[in-house]
Amino acid sequence: MTNTQLRNRATLNWLSNASHALDRAAEEAAIARQATLTKPPGSLGRLEELAIWLSARQGKAIPMVAAPSVAVFAGDHGVAKRGVSAFPPEVTGQMVANFAAGGAAICVLSREAGAHFEVVDVGTRLTSHPKGVIVDRIAHGSSDMVEGPALSADELAHALNAGRRAVQRAQQRGADLLVLGEMGIGNTTAASAVSASLLGLCGEALAGPGTGLDPAGVASKALIVDQAIRANGLTLGSDPLDVLAAVGGHELAALTGAYLSAAELGLPVVVDGFICSASALVAARVRPDCAHWMLGSHTSAEPGHQLILAELDMHPVLDLGLRLGEGSGAGALLPILKIACALHGSMATFAEAGVAEA
User: Fold this and answer.
1) I need a labelling partner for 142 at 20 to 30 A (CA). Which of 51, 83, 323, 340 fits?
2) Any domain includes 18
3) How many structural domains comprise the chain?
4) pLDDT category, 6, cuts 50, 70, 90?
5) Helix 215-231 vs helix 240-247: angle between axes, to the nearest 10 degrees?
6) 185 and 80 in contact (C-beta within 8 Å)?
7) Within-domain flag for 30
8) What is d(CA 273, CA 155) in angstroms, rounded to the nearest whole number?
9) What pLDDT digit, counting tens, does each position of 242-288 carry?
């Protein structure tokens, strides 16, 4: 099936929908308010910028992060059998259980931020699920990308729509901000292959240690990325959805669908590290204006992340040496976003405080 046929499917007709327009009036009102607060202009740095960024997307002069929502997509990867991770493939399913039990880092971060949390199985090999896991899949893992496409057209379409459904659930709950994460042993290899294809680079430029590979393991991963790109006939001009199907995975596709849907529905989304950013890059290639709804959370320790950030012109807020995934870097930004909104909305103005302006 060609990509044109895929895009024309009735279930994917939303791919051609435009992203929601930013509220420039709210943005200007937020900028004007910042100028009246009892501080030198610009003295709160990125905290000021974050509040203004949210204003334009929430349509409010005084934005809030009162109802954040977190979704983690999980999927297994056929390429994992090639030893591209320091952990065995069964860890994907084990971590899904850990998410459901509330024991993972992103679960802790979600609780601390008062965020709704859900984990969605979009393509694991699990045969049974703990209570609380949302199952939205049509396949048990992707195929080995070195031997052909990782996802069939049906699998890609389903995963894109699974991401959309997660955004719709968040919107129905009244979410004012969305954090997305992922889990899947082997998915740094998939993200490297997707990014290398879209950026016209070799595996060596994108492959990193992931879960803890040594230098020899990283070199092997880079070769596998190159093999997968060649096996699927990908070139710099390949359609982004063709790339996603050929060398991506179920959770990467769900992330892509979620980024596109969040922009269409007007829900600001915080982008995590390397893997999430690779999916954000696909989304931005499908519909460039969706990037306006994405906020970079942190700079990952994964070396390829910087290349994707530069391509997206994204300037993350945090640099903490994180490389866990799960959405943990995005989750770590939530308290700072809350602080930015509180300062913006609750600081006194010069007039209110009786303080002379410069």
Assistant:
1) 323
2) no
3) 1
4) low
5) 120
6) yes
7) no
8) 24
9) 999 999 999 999 999 999 999 999 999 999 999 999 999 999 999 99
> Which residues does residue 70 pair with via DSSP β-bridges, in sequence order?
117, 179
Query: Is residue 10 over pLDDT 80?
Result: no
> Where residue 199 sits, what CATH number does that domain have?
3.40.50.10210
Per-residue pLDDT, 1: 44
Cβ contact 94:125 at 8 Å: no
Nearest 5°: the CA angle 263, 195, 287 is: 25
Question: Across the strands, what pairs with 68?
Answer: 177
Residue 62: which region, alpha, beta or left (left: phi > 0; alpha: psi -120 to 50)?
beta
Q: Which residues are catalytically annotated?
A: 326
Exposed e or buried b per residue across 107-134, where buried means at least 16 C-beta atoms within 10 angstroms of its C-beta: bebbeebebebbbbbbbbebeebeeebb
Q: What percent of the chain has pLDDT over 70?
A: 97
State both tokens at 241: 């959805």
Angle made by CA atoms 84, 89, 92, in degrees to the nearest 5: 115
Contacts of 181 (CB under 8 A, 6+ apart): 70, 71, 72, 73, 106, 272, 276, 325, 326, 327, 328, 330, 331
Mean pLDDT of the chain: 95
CB proximity list for 10: less than 8 A, separation 6 or greater: none
Domain carrying residue 161: 64-338
| Residue 50: inside a domain | no
21 found inside a domain:
no
pLDDT 10s digits, 170-182: 999 999 999 999 9
Q: What burial class does residue 35 get, using C-beta atoms within 10 Å of its C-beta: 0-12 exposed, 13-18 middle, 19+ buried? A: middle
For the entire predicted model, the pTM comes to 0.96
